[in-house]
Amino acid sequence: MVKLTLYGLDASPPVRAVKLTLAALDLPYEYVNINISGKEQLSPGYVEKNPQHTVPTLEVDGHYIWDSHAICAYLVSKFADSDALYPKDLLQRAVVDQRMHFESGVVFADGIRSIIKSVVFFGKKTMPKERYDAIIQIYDFVETFLGGNDYVAGSHLTIADFSLISSITSLEAFVDFDPVKYPKIHAWIQRLEKLPYYEEANGKGAKQLVAIVRNTKFTFET
């Protein structure tokens, strides 16, 4: 069995997506916490592993993969007993890929990173209303994506769910989630919360991120 080492921190949504995938596959791994506040990700040793100095980074027998979506796809393709989490059928895979691109390019970029960078790292106390509107639009999109399905890419659990649940549950740090307005998202979250590994892999870290952001007491412009 190859040795897997995951570099990250629990508050990071992309790290949590990888932890969910590792747990779903029941893969043992070493976890190395990276102190982002202390700029450990900028150390020469870490930059050598990942020139973009982001988390997560996965070490596989001396090889390094970064970007949570690439890591999750690799793990399933390499170690899973079936293709259920990342279908080989090209049409089904395209839907999973689209949801993951949506997570990285819209949910994480517009809904999380744009605010976290300003309020946590630069101490900004007020954010433009457009950032609030972007999060509402994200909720609207995901509610639509779910449609009549139990999961974001269809009728069964995939790595798209792991990617999106890590970010969607983090949006609570910025905008309170309305289960009445978004009943499909609410049911989907409850469905994933029933996974035996959910709390350790995602729930705990999501609470950490919410606490960090709310401690800044930032507000949106009206």
Task: Quote the distance from N terminus to C terminus.
Answer: 55 Å
Helix content: 40-55%
Q: Outline the low-pLDDT stretches.
A: none
Number of strands: 6
Chain-averaged pLDDT: 97
Strand composition percent = 5-15%
**Biggest sheet overview:** 4 strands, mixed
Helix and strand content put the structural class at alpha/beta
H-E string: EHEHEEHHEHHHHE
Alpha plus pi helix count: 8
Spatial strand sequence of the major β-sheet: 2-1-3-4
Rough outline: globular
How large, in whole angstroms, is the Cα Rg? 17 Å
Secondary structure layout:
Layout: E1 4-8, H1 13-24, E2 30-33, H2 44-49, E3 57-60, E4 63-66, H3 68-79, H4 90-121, E5 126-127, H5 129-146, H6 159-168, H7 183-193, H8 198-214, E6 219-220
Parallel strand pairs: 1-2, 5-6
Antiparallel strand pairs: 1-3, 3-4
Can you give a write-up of this model?
The protein is 53% helix and 9% strand. The longest helix has 32 residues, at 90-121. The protein has a four-stranded mixed sheet, covered by helices on one side. The chain has a two-stranded parallel sheet with strand order 5-6. It contains eight helices and six strands. Helix 1 packs antiparallel against helix 6, helix 4 (90-121) packs antiparallel against helix 5 and helix 5 (129-146) packs across helix 7 (183-193). By secondary structure, it is an alpha/beta fold. The model has no long low-confidence stretch (mean pLDDT 97).
